[in-house]
Structure of Inositol-3-phosphate synthase:
Amino acid sequence: MSGTGVWLAGARGSVATTAVLGALAVRAGLAERTGFVCEVPGFPDAGLPAVSDLVFGGHDLVDVPLLKRAEQLAHAGVVPPGLPARLRDELAAVEADIVTGGADGRTRDPAGTLRRLTDDIRAFRDRHALDRVVVVNVTATEPPTAPRPEHATLAALRRAIDGGTMVLPASACYAYAAFEAGCGHVDFTPSVGARLPALAELARERAVPYAGNDGKTGETLVKAALAPMFAGRNLRVGSWAGTNLLGGGDGANLADPQAAASKLDSKRRLVAETLGYPVDGPLHIDYVADLGEQKTAWDHVTFRGFLGARMTLQFTWQGYDSALAAPLVLDLARLVATAHAAGRAGPLPELAYFFKDPIGATTHDLAAQYDTLCAFAARGCR
Amino acid sequence: MSGTGVWLAGARGSVATTAVLGALAVRAGLAERTGFVCEVPGFPDAGLPAVSDLVFGGHDLVDVPLLKRAEQLAHAGVVPPGLPARLRDELAAVEADIVTGGADGRTRDPAGTLRRLTDDIRAFRDRHALDRVVVVNVTATEPPTAPRPEHATLAALRRAIDGGTMVLPASACYAYAAFEAGCGHVDFTPSVGARLPALAELARERAVPYAGNDGKTGETLVKAALAPMFAGRNLRVGSWAGTNLLGGGDGANLADPQAAASKLDSKRRLVAETLGYPVDGPLHIDYVADLGEQKTAWDHVTFRGFLGARMTLQFTWQGYDSALAAPLVLDLARLVATAHAAGRAGPLPELAYFFKDPIGATTHDLAAQYDTLCAFAARGCR
Amino acid sequence: MSGTGVWLAGARGSVATTAVLGALAVRAGLAERTGFVCEVPGFPDAGLPAVSDLVFGGHDLVDVPLLKRAEQLAHAGVVPPGLPARLRDELAAVEADIVTGGADGRTRDPAGTLRRLTDDIRAFRDRHALDRVVVVNVTATEPPTAPRPEHATLAALRRAIDGGTMVLPASACYAYAAFEAGCGHVDFTPSVGARLPALAELARERAVPYAGNDGKTGETLVKAALAPMFAGRNLRVGSWAGTNLLGGGDGANLADPQAAASKLDSKRRLVAETLGYPVDGPLHIDYVADLGEQKTAWDHVTFRGFLGARMTLQFTWQGYDSALAAPLVLDLARLVATAHAAGRAGPLPELAYFFKDPIGATTHDLAAQYDTLCAFAARGCR
Amino acid sequence: MSGTGVWLAGARGSVATTAVLGALAVRAGLAERTGFVCEVPGFPDAGLPAVSDLVFGGHDLVDVPLLKRAEQLAHAGVVPPGLPARLRDELAAVEADIVTGGADGRTRDPAGTLRRLTDDIRAFRDRHALDRVVVVNVTATEPPTAPRPEHATLAALRRAIDGGTMVLPASACYAYAAFEAGCGHVDFTPSVGARLPALAELARERAVPYAGNDGKTGETLVKAALAPMFAGRNLRVGSWAGTNLLGGGDGANLADPQAAASKLDSKRRLVAETLGYPVDGPLHIDYVADLGEQKTAWDHVTFRGFLGARMTLQFTWQGYDSALAAPLVLDLARLVATAHAAGRAGPLPELAYFFKDPIGATTHDLAAQYDTLCAFAARGCR
């Protein structure tokens, strides 16, 4: 396959900037494949497009130059100090494909807004003569979306839009535009994205695949690795408390309890669903400006063994969210593009390994999700 | 199957005492099934003997009464305070089947010693008219065993023994006696146990199954759950440091650097073998008397993400070794007995899930080991 | 000095029960002096009454027998299993001096309620012919008290009470009754207690000393030891996040965000006041039932060194609140009684070492507070 | 005072390079005073020379340019990326005062070696017309020095040297040269430095002050803050285990168990001396190359409260040794220079606050040491 585009909603955010810079660095031979799931030696060859062949564009509401954003990330320790300057020209080329603007969910002309988003994506595909484009949502987490009757069917949704009522939050606008443009879609955030019946209908109609939600990059990744251990060993978990300290733009956004609610919700389900019984314990997300682009999570688990013996496990995870997320964004875009080419449409539960709250998936067990992913790749993402 | 015996080498140690007390508590309806791998709801029905039907006996060099040992464990917080007294009579009954003595590796009459061990096991089986007995080694960890030519073949081994030279360490004597008596064998310690070519030959000759080594009950369990996460996500582990603080008899024994060497060796392999490259980092086992029966492990992992971002994971595990080990000992005895009944002989690599250094197994990935175990159980341990 | 009474408001709570049981154990020669500040070898001899000579009584709204409460604490690991039964008779003797009832802040007859509380305390003093009684508040933390004009002067307070309006929360009722009965007072909780101008006036009028608030027994103790280290070394603290997980009755009570607000408030001031600049960071108190009587705190501190180098310190404290608090309660009662005998009246800022939010004190530096305490003891609590 | 020189033994090491770069940054207005003990607002004015007025020189066995070393530190995250280049000229100026060579303890001409070291220091003082120079040892930690009779008196030492036998390790050579040149001396390492009777005699003879040993910059600093908390609260410490993971040159050097022995020795004393009883627990220093210039320490403390309740405290410290040490080196040089000017000679126990193993000091209590330091500064370092 050749000619694969990645359209980033939130193209100037930390995750998107790291993904673009990183892909350019790979192309220039300046970066290793660390962090790419599909580049582990022995991972099945799914015929994915090469990282170095990806073409980037996107929407963003702000217009800070990519080079400046990359330099901020270098200052914060996420990417190597000298790298942005060395890729100055390549970043400038991507710059030309980023449209300032996008969905903000408050437009008075919903039909026009959605048409514009769709046109932007189509124009990008045409401009670069791409076979396929995958739209990836890496905008800031939205507050939970209140259910509305217009979300139930595509017909009702279109009636509302044509009638001048914007009933979709921004994340769903990007999914709508992706599907309308005939593109696959990935929601890397906990926002609603494509998770509305009307949008599922649209994806089927346009025969495009999609995946989400909420990239699993830190605390939840570790939980997904550890919870099956307690389950398999029949150790009774009495409580699982988690504190997440985040700096950066993501942290500032999640300081809003409304936005944090979406994230907490997708984080919370995993343990109880893996263990098969409810598990007590607070779960906090807190903004700590001084952490910069880092995030730190502390989890504390109490459990009982044979004859009621009381034991504990605690872990502290300290990482850079963008460095963890960026290669997964690139992997997902390549996997969804390949699935699209192979004729898959609708949700891709086989990609659950990447997500906190995977669409259509039946297990939170990290190892089981990994096996499913490998099988999916081995059969060419069909 | 009815009539399964468990013969414990080291029958008065903390693990054995907890296993016996716990099985008696289960029989009396005083304990839940927490900690038993084979009692998780949904675990395949392998036709195992019931925990409450197991019959116990064993060897121990010391003669402290089981009741007293159980009360020491209650005092240390491993088992509930009132439990030993409530099971006083049942403990006394087991007491009658514990032979004071055993292998100490320094006998002048090796043939006689091995004959006596074998006879003790046979007598126990006959006394209780048991279909089958599994011998489980839960004695203290031995120093590494120097290789000797007499270990290479059964014929050479028997010649040495008959010639009056004791060439087997204590742990191997129990394996020899088990096999001679026609019993399955489990080595729950890092000692050499059955891992000598001569003993493998004997097990084949007598058509008995065996499993080991070194029960995976704490730090290594967590490592086995976490290392595949780093591998799957292609996160480059730069170092993995571990500090293990142990109290109790196990800790005191491992304060001897020679004995600790066996344990460290079996702990160390896992990470590098899972990741496929060597990983730096110290690994300590230290005796801290004040911890009593508790053990605490701290692991610190440095790793790199995309574009070289530096990140860390650390965890602290705080648990009671005996409470973790005891139900596994009972599970293993039941699984090996069932495999024996089903006609299996030789090593049982399907039981790798239980061990730090599994005989004949090919992966350290906890989830893969769990899947293998479930498949083994589902086919009746055949 | 002989004949010192300790009147516990909340006499059947975990802290009070541990204090009473512990003092009886000391008297019976069954306990060491661990945890008593005033019993450290070398601590100045202040002529305190002996722990073994203290006489106990108190109020409590519930009537669970002390022996039962003590056994619950033994079950939870706070006190040794056999101890309550060995002190059965001594506990029963104290039982006779506990009045079921007390202040609940919602009475229709405030004057009558306060008179009854005062009379209970006086009767206890007379019954045992005590020289002096110290009233210690160890009831559950109250929500913050809204300021009222009647709190400003003793005259206004008495007018309100005589007029049938209860303007004092329960904690202040105990302080009022203590002062009216001519007794010293300690508030070991973050509740308002004696911290109202009207009550300060009453304490002066009756010439009685008092101390508070909120015993420093865990996370805040460690913070008070560590914050001066950062200050002295001129390391710039960028954030200090704290998560407190509590089980037990205290935890259940603090699950109420209103009650937690009082506690958080007194916990929060320390770091900024020690460092001299505001410090960012969340501070959580969460109820985790499975912890039983334990509490676990995790603190995460980010700081900068020379040339902006980013560093972190984190600590995890795991303790039994009642075991930490009980000897301090006994120390405080003895110190306040001694100060009372020595003629001190009004607040005792010299006791700041014991409190999170010390009345009248000027530093949160633990070492400075300790020096002040030692000097106070050395001069006979004058 | 004007004209103070700092002569660094090990002038191209990480600590020295950070100290020089940092002082130049302060002079250029590019750095704040973070990390300087003597620059905390409110710290007594002792009339110290300004950081920006210090003049630097030193010995080093290697000849990597300072600018290159500074850039390596920037790459490792110790100092800001752009800083070395901005101070290129200033670093080059210091370069001219660094003599390649020094003491290596294996010379065949001890008298000549010591004369040369002394001459280098004197030449530096003369070249810059400095009032005073302080020699600071920041070379790599040496193995413990075996006692020799020649260390007992200055006469015996001089006889050995003149006789061609080098009986001093490198660290002591620098102290010898410092004293011979009439300079104050600071040993920031655990090496023997000035701690020999013969050298104490020489310092008295030349009327120069000195201080040491082993800068307290991480784990031991935290221990010194926490141990008095346990002591004051009469909490019985049952064990104190520590694991130190170090990268960088210091880590590589301490991977040698002989060198580590010196360091462990000075780390170990603190807890037992503060608490007044022996405390069990392992103490490890391990080299972990992947940590780069960072060090991470994990300490685990078990303690008992009232009635024997078992509790634990653990902390993890993650820092850059050089960033912590550098401002202390500059503080110490200024304090010793001021004491020298004020007429002090011999050891300066008032500087114990800075050291793990303070010469002549009587307490390890951090707060008490801080009070002593402030009093010393307030009286002009007299």
